[in-house]
UniProtKB/TrEMBL annotation:
Entry-linked Pfam families: Cupin_7
ChrR-like cupin domain location: 10-111
Gene3D superfamilies cross-referenced by the UniProt entry: Jelly Rolls (2.60.120.10)
UniProt xrefs under InterPro entries: ChrR-like_cupin_dom, RmlC-like_jellyroll, RmlC_Cupin_sf
Domain of life where this protein originates: Bacteria
Protein name: ChrR-like anti-ECFsigma factor
Length: 226
């Protein structure tokens, strides 16, 4: 399967409007945003776990990165409430599920091959960053030589500008903003190729966003095993 795989063009998906597609695990459904491959895939998705649902234990040879959007995600390492950001590097594995149900935003097979840092940033964690005009709060969740992952809250009716030297990916968590001729609302996902900056005109209720400044596909991205 190839879905939104052209990384050279501006890509916008209003994920809240997509149908839920069943996964191989009973009670686990997903909304696919980006995909190269079938069940083994480079993928970005929003995944919903029904109460009591789970996957069997499996590995993540290409790494896994996720943000808990609703509920509490669980595996054998602990409970991860809404707002938790996790990076499970290549070679890790787990048996994920949720006793009460949850929804996550997740990226698979998009780690650099040498990235071995595990990150768990719970709500309120992260490094507070100096505020730019129009920004109420700004937290750095992860930083490496090639990636900066941020969680920000934007003021109502503000104009926000993000430079984009390497590539930019953004998910609206709450609120809304206008960019170009589009209105982005809760769970709208935007991907911009390098060199296309973002100008956002924030709606009257403000906006909370997760975003990443990084190559859209690392030069040393984990390769699929034969």
């Amino acid at each position: 399967m190839l879905l939104k795989d052209d990384l050279a063009v501006r890509t916008l998906v209003h994920a809240a409007a997509l149908d839920w597609v069943p996964s191989p695990a009973k009670g686990v459904e997903r909304r696919m945003l980006f995909r190269i491959g079938d069940e083994k895939a480079r993928a970005t998705s929003i995944v919903r776990y029904a109460p009591g649902s789970h996957f069997a234990r499996h590995g993540h040879p290409g790494g896994e990165e996720f943000l808990v959007l609703e509920g509490t995600f669980q595996d054998e390492t602990g409970d991860f409430p809404a707002g938790t950001y996790v990076r499970n590097p290549p070679g890790t594995g787990h048996a994920p599920g949720s006793e009460d149900g949850c929804t996550i935003f997740v990226k698979l097979w998009q780690f650099g091959a040498t990235d071995r840092e595990r990150v768990v940033a719970r709500p309120g964690d992260g490094k507070s960053i100096a505020l730019r005009p129009g920004v109420i709060s700004s937290f750095l969740l992860f930083q490496s030589a090639s990636e900066h992952v941020m969680l920000e809250t934007w003021q109502p009716d503000a104009e926000i500008n993000l430079v984009n030297p390497e590539g930019l990916e953004l998910l609206v968590l709450n609120g809304s903003f206008d960019s170009e001729s589009d209105t982005l609302t809760r769970w709208s996902w935007l991907r911009l190729p390098p060199g296309q900056p973002l100008t956002a005109h924030v709606g009257p209720e403000g906006a909370s966003v997760w975003f990443k400044s990084a190559p859209l596909l690392h030069d040393d991205v984990c390769a699929f095993a034969d």
